[in-house]
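Worked problem 6 (solution included).
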Amino acid sequence: MRKINGIIQAGGRASRIGLNKAFLDVGGKRIIDRIIGELSSCVDKIVIVANEPEEYRSLGFPVHPDVIPGVGSLGGIYSGLFHSDAEWNFIVACDMPFLSAELVRRLSDRAEGCDIVVERSNVGFEPLAALYARSILPVLRTMIDGGDLAIHRLFGKVRTRVAELDPLFLQRHPHLFFNINTREDWESAQRMAKII
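Solution. The predicted structure is:
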């Protein structure tokens, strides 16, 4: 498998839930620890992008604030790639408790000849659980400088491979792309963790 870094996007306190989502407990384990556990088996290095770095230092991984603050998820992707020493980087949001290392491997297997490999679920593209080449940094910078901050528009500007989900893979990982935005989502995740 090619060298891949895992980049966790940990923006900090979420306004809708009022807590740092990375440290919420799901199934007896903090979400960030669940993500680190999965990434540890399939990436060469883990990097965390967080605007409150001191909260994450105890995890033992490099932590970097946004290079360009205040530009949302696209800025987080830019920051992660900027601080990475690998050409390929799996970028994941810190609020996805059911990430699977198998997803990273599947995306890596499809990376030849493109700049981004992203899955499309039943709700659309999943850009915060996708594989990005560091070589897209200039494109990201141009978008940010121009105020074009929608991640989905990035896909049309670089060579993007859309990986359609295999139904058997989804059966094994039915909550793969579930993310937590509200207290209700957190409660749902806790219920899901009990039946997985």
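Discussion: The two ends are 28 Å apart (CA to CA).
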